[in-house]
Amino acid sequence: MTRALKGSGFLGLAVMMAVGLHQFVIVAGGSAVPPWMIGGHAHLGVLSILAIVMGFAVPALGVTGTTRTAVTGLFIAGQWGIPGIVWLGEGFGLTFLMPTGFLWGGALIVSMLIMFYYSVTQPSDAAGGGSASFAPGDD
C-alpha cells in the first residue's frame, strides 16, 4: 500500500510539473494563467509531496491491515480529487461537481486524523521516537 502512496505522489508531481510548463507557455504567449489552473497546480504539488511523506509515515507508525488500506485510499482520493475538482469544475465548466470538494477534503481529513491517532498512541521508542544514541553537537 505504501507503494501506492509513493507512486501517486511522484505521478502527481510529474502532472503538476507538466501543468506548470503549460502555465509557462500561457504566460510566454502573453496571456494570464487562469486562477483555477494555478490553484489546482498548487494543491496537487503540496498533496503529492505529502503522499510521498505518507508512504514513509504509514509503515513507520505501524499502520496495518484495513486501517492502512483506508488511510491510503482516502489520502489518494483526496490528493487527486481536490485539484481535479478545481480543474474540472472551474476549468471545464462542470460546476455541478464542485460540492464533491467536501468529499475529497473530508477524505484527506479522515486520513490525517487516523495518522494523528497512530502518531500519539505509539510508544515513544517506536518509529525512531526514542532518544538518540549520541548527543547532538551544538552547531
From TrEMBL:
Q: Which domain of life is it from?
A: Archaea
Tagged with keyword Transmembrane helix = yes
Give TM segment ranges: 42-63, 70-89, 101-120
Q: Where is the DUF8059 domain?
A: 1-139
> Record keywords: Membrane included?
yes
Its keywords, alphabetically, are:
Membrane, Transmembrane, Transmembrane helix
Question: In its UniProt entry, what is this protein called?
Answer: DUF8059 domain-containing protein
> What is the species listed in this Swiss-Prot or TrEMBL entry?
Halorubrum aquaticum
